[in-house]
Structure formats: C-alpha cells, structure tokens
Design goal:
about 120 residues; rod-shaped; alpha+beta; 2 helices; 4-stranded antiparallel sheet
C-alpha cells in the first residue's frame, strides 16, 4: 500500500510541476506575442495616419497603462508659409496591450512657432 501511496504522490507532484511549467510557458508566449515599446510607437503612428490622413511628426508622451498604452502624438494639420505659422495638433492616442488603436482625440491645436502660454502660479 505504501508503494501505491508513493506512486500517487509522485504523480501528483509531477502534475503540479507540469502545471507550473505550462503556466510559465503561457506567460512567456504572451510576453513574446505582445509588441515592445518601439513596435507600439510604429503601430500607433501608422494607425493614426491611416485614420486621420495626417502623418505624425513626433511622439511627445508615451506610457504603458493597465489597459495597454497611452501616447500623445504631434501632427501637422495645416501647412503654411512660413513654416512657423503652420498649424500643429496634439492627439491623445490609446492602444490595447497588443498595440491596436482603441481611440484617439485631438487635445490641442497650435501654431508651430508658438510655445505654450504660461500658466499663473509659476506652473
């Protein structure tokens, strides 16, 4: 009877080990299937350009969130002469964990040659 008990414990231990290894493998595959930060940036710029028809000039903010990624992208909305009078816009872009765009909105519009207005209180 002790052999049967030892065999059962050995099988349970092996199943537990296999389950842990499988879980680690799943986590590793998920991590590999998710794009890295540079790929997310490329995807965001491309997807935003496809939706709006405007090419991204720069990314001024980029962070990972609980849901995926959040970026602020600067685009040229209206080209003027001289270039310092061209109209620029900042778009807030949200992506899921796989780098697929889930939403965007324009948060600011400004002339290229102008800096942000100073806020009162030294901020």
């Amino acid at each position: 009877m002790s052999n049967t008990k030892n065999t059962q414990e050995s099988q349970d231990s092996q199943e537990s080990q296999n389950s842990r290894n499988s879980s680690r493998t799943d986590d590793q595959q998920t991590a590999r299937s998710r794009p890295g930060p540079m790929e997310v940036l490329r995807q965001a710029r491309g997807q935003l350009a496809e939706l709006t028809g405007m090419e991204a000039e720069s990314v001024s903010s980029f962070e990972q969130t609980e849901e995926g990624w959040a970026l602020e992208v600067e685009v040229l909305e209206l080209e003027r002469v001289p270039d310092t009078m061209s109209l620029m816009a900042s778009y807030q872009v949200e992506l899921d964990a796989e780098g697929q765009l889930t939403g965007y909105r324009r948060v600011r519009r400004y002339e290229r040659g102008r800096s942000d207005a100073r806020r009162s209180g030294g901020r």
